[in-house]
Amino acid sequence: MRLRRGSNGMANATTLAWIGIGLGVASFLVIAAHLALGHRQRMAVMNAVWPVTGLYAGPIAVATYFAEFRRDHRRRNPWRDSALAATHCGAGCCLGDIGAEAWMHAKPFTLLGSALAASWTLDFAFAFVLGIAFQYASIKPMSKLPAARALLAALKADSLSLVAWQAGMYGAMAFAMFGLAGRRLEPAEPVFWLAMQGAMIAGFLVSWPVNALLLRAGIKERM
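The structure corresponding to this sequence follows.
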């Protein structure tokens, strides 16, 4: 059953959306506060990645963050390594999507006559650039490569992962909009951001095995 504007279903979805947004913001603040108290990550970029992960994964991110904080880092787990590797592109995608949607809200435009196509294209561009930036920030300190070579390494390591993430995210957003809501959701609606949280988790699930393959092939380095 589709949710229509003004229906009880949409009202309930809006309430649920505010709960999801609140949990995301609270999770961001909990992780950021713990880091600010001096519990800095050994890899500097993760000081930014973990709070951003909290925005879309909420309490799951908080639980995972504290589990990592207590974990014996000498023990390796391939699926755990690939999950952590996926969070880099996830942070880029999350911030990129927020930035792109803010841009579209302030200065809307269309692509081939479609506002949705313009929005998703801008989302991808922002997410790709920021995702590569996060990967660069993880590679440069570990490798001591010159800037140009580190950037090429970041492109090689994370391009496929970013494409997989965005593909999963777009599929989930399309289902939320046209399968559940029955219309395009707008960034001004809280339900849009609840859908985005779910879509980001879908992107993570699609990107996770891709990162496992990249790590196994030696294209991407374990953190």
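The helical segments are 8-36, 46-57, 59-70, 78-106, 115-143, 147-181, 190-216.
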